[in-house]
């Protein structure tokens, strides 16, 4: 047992979940009231913001970073020369959404003079989670070739997992990009993939125990000198709060700067709202302000 949660038990190569209702433990859709209303709202906000940016020639769409169909990113530019680059990686359990839902989250960072890149990536089951990790590294490489300066990473849920993976000693990022990293903020992140072996969704993830261990940031060492803040809503499912605390707790034993924030009155869907605001603590923490 670890952090009060039993690790998955394997019997004849299959996961046995015991008496825990793992589906409920990870179902944000069921936990958040009116959860279905959020994605259309995100898409609407993003569409409006893109129109504003395009009118000002501050938006570059569909920059290719790899050969797969969904290997495209959008780049949002500030009014003046960028102070650095923010990469935001969307969530959706590696199964849903694309970059078009999240342009509006660039508003806070661009108000402070940062450029923001938002990639789409190949979804499960067409890609495995390790393949998606590699794609995100490719997206960062491409975006970083377009914008100079410090590199800050943020990701939500599955995207939080993906940006945390960039901060491990097994990161696919090259040394020069590692040296540009200034801040990583996994938001409501899945940091330990082993419980996901118990979920029906694993038919699409296709994780086995070995792969889940290798892809779990909480089970890896962070890059020395990295500055990380784990951010989660106080009203989220207990598993997401636990996962955020676990990363902050275990990585605090290494040569990194790490803290953990549990934002009051926030759940898995509205936890991102702060990134729309220039002076929200989440935006300021991401930008090291």
TrEMBL record:
Gene3D superfamilies: alpha/beta hydrolase. Residues 73-204 form the BD-FAE-like domain. The keyword Hydrolase applies. Keywords: Hydrolase. The keyword Transmembrane helix does not apply. It comes from the Bacteria. GO terms for molecular function: hydrolase activity. This is Acetyl esterase/lipase. It comes from Pseudochrobactrum asaccharolyticum.
